[in-house]
Amino acid sequence: MTLPLSAFRTRASSLLRDYAELTKLRVTTLIVMTAWCGYFFGAHKSGASWISWGLLHSLLGIGLVSSGTAALNEVMEYDVDAHMRRTALRPIPAGRMSLLHATLVGVIAAVGGSIYLAVFTNPLTGFLTFLTAVVYLAAYTPLKRISPICTFVGAFPGAMPGVLGWTAARGRLEWGTLVLFAILFVWQFPHFFSIAWLYREDYAKGGVRMLPVVESDGRSTARRILVYSVVLIPISLLPTFMGMAGRVYLAGAIALGFALLYFGMRLAFLDQPLASAPSKIRARHVLQATVIYLPLLFSLMMVNSIHS
């Protein structure tokens, strides 16, 4: 009895790891945290407590749709993933999961999550969440093999989590949703350009036409990282001027914005080829800075809103 039980546990553990990879658990977690921020401000505007069953329903539904979208993205790109070192060991290209299995998981999670949101939060949130998944899969995913404009197109669904959290709490689109959308929209460019810089050779092997792949020297990518980092500073201050957060947030947003800009400048003013070790080190620093920036900014926004 011990041997079959041990084998079952090993298989179950392996399957859970595969599901975590298939649904991009770390990305989904960041999406859910950002949606939590949106729900917090929507509830705050309504004068209601953000600790509620509504929050649980919202985060569960948004998490399901995000997971399902990620799974379907991996189904659509399994051949691309097979050619790239960083993705070759994902469940589908590695042969640990069939296309049918992954497709069923993706469709059930994405469609089921959208219906769940429509029923347990409101129809607007269910519709917007489903539309976000459709744009990501039908526009951004195929464009990755065609043109660098994919990053711009993909920034639209990527900026939606805060909006979805807000509408789940409020049931309508308002100016506050635009503020959260704008912050996320602009933040994505230094984040994803730095990823593409780091994995340029991998993307080239997979036929993914990110900007660092199609340009020879990296100058255009560096300029965009710099420009979007500059633009992010005034946009990140909008929550204070919109009455969503106070002066502590204002000071913190300025500090975080200039810190991110500093790392962007270090990369932009480094006169080194894209593939050189120094440029990759600095691109990684930009990536790390963006990963730290977003949760700190939203956490500060939420904490200071209580006292604003």
What would you say this structure looks like, in words?
This protein is an all-alpha fold and 308 residues long. 80% of the residues lie in helices and 0% in strands. The chain has helices at residues 2-22, 25-46, 53-76, 78-83, 99-120, 123-143, 150-158, 161-170, 175-198, 200-206, 211-214, 219-236, 238-241, 247-268, 277-307. Helix 2 runs antiparallel to helix 3 (53-76). The chain is globular, with a radius of gyration of 20 Å. The relative contact order is 0.11. The model has no long low-confidence stretch (mean pLDDT 91).
In terms of topology, how is this protein built?
Elements: H1 2-22, H2 25-46, H3 53-76, H4 78-83, H5 99-120, H6 123-143, H7 150-158, H8 161-170, H9 175-198, H10 200-206, H11 211-214, H12 219-236, H13 238-241, H14 247-268, H15 277-307
Helix pairs in contact: 2-3, 2-8, 2-15, 3-5, 3-6, 3-8, 5-6, 6-7, 6-8, 7-9, 8-9, 9-12, 9-15, 12-14, 14-15
Mean pLDDT, to the nearest integer, reads 91
The biggest beta sheet reads: none
Q: Residue ranges: pLDDT <50 for 5 or more in a row? A: none
Per DSSP, what share of the residues sits in E-state strands of 2 or more residues? under 5%
Task: Summarize this structure as a short list of keywords or feature phrases.
308 residues, mainly alpha, 0% strand
